[in-house]
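User: Assemble these into one structure.

Assistant: Restating your components, then the assembled model:
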Amino acid sequence: MPRLLEIENLRTQFFTSAGTVRAVDGISYNVDEGEAAAIVGESGCGKSVSALSILRLIPDPPGRIVDGSIRFKGIDLLQLSDVEIRRVRGRRIAMVFQEPMTSLNPVLTIGLQLTETLTHHLGMTKEAARARAVELMGMVGISDPERRLSQYPHHFSGGMRQRVMIAMALCCEPELIIADEPTTALDVTIQAQILELMKDLTRRLGVALIIITHNLGVVARYADRVHVMYAGKIIEQGTARQIYHEPGHPYTIGLLHSVPRLDQPRKEKLAPIEGQPPDLARLDEGCAFRPRCRYAVERCATEIPPLEDMGDGHYSACWEKDKLPQPQRAAS
Amino acid sequence: MSVESAAPGADIGAAPSVAKGETLLEVRGLKKYFPITAGVMIQRTIAEVKAVDGISFDIRRGETLGLVGESGCGKTTTGRCILQLDRPSEGAIIFDGVNLVELDQRALSPYRQKIQVIFQDPYSSLNPRLKIGTIIGEPMKVHNIEPNVNKRRARVSELLSICGLDPRFADRYPHEMSGGQRQRVGIARALSLNPQFIICDEAVSALDVSIQAQVINLLEDLREEFHLTYLFIAHDLSVVRHLCHRVAVMYLGKIVEFAECDELYDNPLHPYTQLLLSAVPIPDPVTESKREHKMLKGEVPSPINPPSGCVFHPRCPIAVEGCSGAIPELRELRPGHWVACTEV
Ligand SMILES: Nc1ncnc2c1ncn2[C@@H]1O[C@H](COP(=O)(O)OP(=O)(O)O)[C@@H](O)[C@H]1O
Ligand SMILES: Nc1ncnc2c1ncn2[C@@H]1O[C@H](COP(=O)(O)OP(=O)(O)O)[C@@H](O)[C@H]1O
Ligand code: SF4
Ligand SMILES: [Mg+2]
Ligand SMILES: [Mg+2]
């Protein structure tokens, strides 16, 4: 598959009274056309900021993209004028957020919000937009679309609102959808419905997907390639199978030991990662994971480990990556 | 005898019963209906939310009972009824042989000490203007457990270290702590009154996985060290499997299935439980690629007008005509494994 998105050495910082927050600290990754990529990591590690940076939606001040390039089909998004980037947003790259209520206008009907995008971005006539809106609602599994288009966001349940957001994202037939924790606020059965819908539609329409989540199960079920973030950096990347079955970074190993399994009887106590993630305004030298790392050696305190290929496109940023034990995963 | 009709305080009867171990808490035929009122001058009740609609179960001393189900199914209301924060519309809450429903506020006071709660969002349950030391020490003062200031301070330090926090945190404010640390404060506060029973209502749900695992381990250690009994309310079914001895599955105010933990996860019998478990993604791509993903269609109906008969019937893949008629009773289909479905 040809490359769709190439992010290189992206650095986004917030200049606050508490100091410079290194929210995204030199990340690089690619997304191929039609691929489902996942960015996974715990809260505050820079997932959302990395996604917002792609669309240049970082509030300035206090934030700024200070370095790097983001090439989308060869065009560097960071070099585009404000007018040009606005034409990319929503049209070629769409976003779905965790809380659809904040992206929907509470006083406008769902129909108006959907058709507005169509008339505004695609120059459709009102009638054509209406017909397309009905079609989109059907695609995302909302029954009785004619009636529901005249309703307001508060008439919709959380799951239904997220379906509307997906319909909006699909409006302009984008090449990439970035979904930032799209199901975090939803119940697990609704989560399964929404993720299945996104997977099905993106595959059918050939749209690439970047799904941002803290849920390791969601990643395992839906992602092809996985990028694990910690403290503003990607510390491991590889296929889902590599990440879960041959994790190459102490943080990833720790995460996998921290989640209980639904499909296996309890064996022993969980083995959590001790301590907590660092303050991104006060990062020490060396590896950001060192204070919590069981495998740290001397050089971890002074030198930042680079993200390096361990073979087969599996990358890890750890000085000890070749010496790590493999967790006992049930070969099922 | 059906669970529905189990008389408050009556013999255990057909409720999920105690096979071994001593019973600490019995919930019998618990109902909680919230009135929905309308009218400007004269408020009249136009409908009722059937938040909890006739549930019965026991909790054994020292066990952790899991209460699972999707949001709105009545988990929190069940917990609040046990705590007597909500007075049940019907039913009995028998703690250590005493029906709390029959007690007045004064007589309840000792039970407010013995039964504690840990909430999901430690931030909203901690007063932002009070220092951590005061937050943890206050209940001891109110319940007159430790009137001496210095001894109380020492006890706060002890509780903080038991919960894995530096005793110096006593001088900090809630906003100066991370989510995981605040949850530990919530636990320390719950422990301050030497409770026997703790209701953990989504106590680890808001935490990141690495921090969540720390708090899960802490809860387990405390259960052993202080011989605690937990009602563990959660929507995360993986965490519940790890932490609980037995599990009750709720749907629209009813218990639809009840079993020993591994039995429930390995042999779910109720169609709702089966679909619920199928929806949970497992953190293993190989397992996931082999698993059948059965989708639960639609959304949970309103508890104001719950479906007739089996409340699950409109969404149930195996429903037959009779399912919209009679309400299915919990039946013990395997030892200790209770299911409210006539078609299994
Ligand atoms: N507007 C902002 N001002 C200051 N700091 C911010 C702002 N937005 C995000 N940050 C900081 O950037 C870091 C990364 O945040 P975010 O990308 O939202 O994390 P995640 O999505 O992984 O939970 C955090 O430390 C956060 O506090
Ligand atoms: N004080 C209240 N007044 C009216 N309805 C309520 C009240 N508390 C809860 N409910 C309703 O009762 C049902 C069960 O709620 P709850 O016990 O909080 O569920 P859960 O904890 O399982 O998410 C929901 O439909 C909820 O909206
Ligand atoms: S580089 Fe060192 S401190 Fe960082 S994860 Fe690897 S071993 Fe641990
Ligand atoms: Mg985020
Ligand atoms: Mg609740």
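Residues 57 and 150 of chain A are 30 Å apart (CA to CA).
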